[in-house]
């Protein structure tokens, strides 16, 4: 007997969840996700999920720790309600930047996150553009790792202009930038960056040719925008004609909006894995693309036991 498909959502990104429901042609699952007066999270699943194939949508965006705890408690509630299978849909995976022990006496919090999600009762995870691909190996359950590349690629190919150079803002993003450049038949450049501390980066050099060309800085996320803004200025100083930026996760914390608006960037293309909540009004340079069809198609294929990797082949 075919299992029914149900999609539930926490409070982190309800707009994206509604878009996904529209793509799937289903109603959003009924659940109460609130809190007691002392701040403890209260969850109640308001419909029968026994034997259902359930997906829980929650991005780890501010307030980050509340979003994570909502996800864990919802998974536990669904597990205790006899759901057949529970898939945690996490467009933006929190704590992904803490993926290795790069200093003495520090945690590997991305691994802790994986353990918590698994222990709560998730059977599989669907996520997008992890900060480091090896985080998939932190899970002992299946992980479907999507890329926003098709969404960004479609927009950039129509608006990026000719003579394009895709620029990686650091050595860690070279593989992402190379794949993008290959699809667009563009040139590749790399910024040699040395980080002096958390959220503090210093651009040192550009390896590659950007002079007289359109430069696209590509990253998985923009947090305080220090890296992107300094990289854009470095490209402009090297003679780039226009400088764009593209990323999947628009964290945009602290002075990010002011930095982007005051920068030499022509446009900053982001997706809605994290809700902007009107931030684009304060920074007209922001262009928001929706990943709802991509996530919706992935959910459809997981439910039907079909290939997900073919979405970005």
Can you walk through the features of this model?
- The chain is α/β, with parallel strands linked by helices and 313 residues long.
- It has helices spanning 14-24, 64-80, 109-120, 149-159, 174-184, 226-237, 256-262, 279-282, 292-303; strands at residues 5-9, 31-35, 41-45, 53-57, 85-90, 124-128, 143-146, 164-168, 187-197, 200-207, 214-222, 242-250, 267-271, 286-289.
- The strands form three sheets. Strands 10-9-8-11-12-13-14 form a seven-stranded mixed sheet, sandwiched between helices.
- α1 (14-24) packs across α9 (292-303).
Please state how the strands of the largest beta sheet are arranged side by side: 10-9-8-11-12-13-14
Count of alpha and pi helical runs: 9
Largest sheet: 7 strands, mixed
Structural class: alpha/beta
Distance between the termini: 31 Å
3D shape: globular
User: Poorly predicted ranges (pLDDT <50, ≥5 residues)?
Assistant: none
Q: How many strands?
A: 14
β-sheet strand percentage: 25-35%
Q: Write the H/E string, N to C.
A: EHEEEHEHEEHEHEEEHEHEHEH
Mean pLDDT: 92
Radius of gyration: 20 Å
- Percent helix among the residues? 25-40%
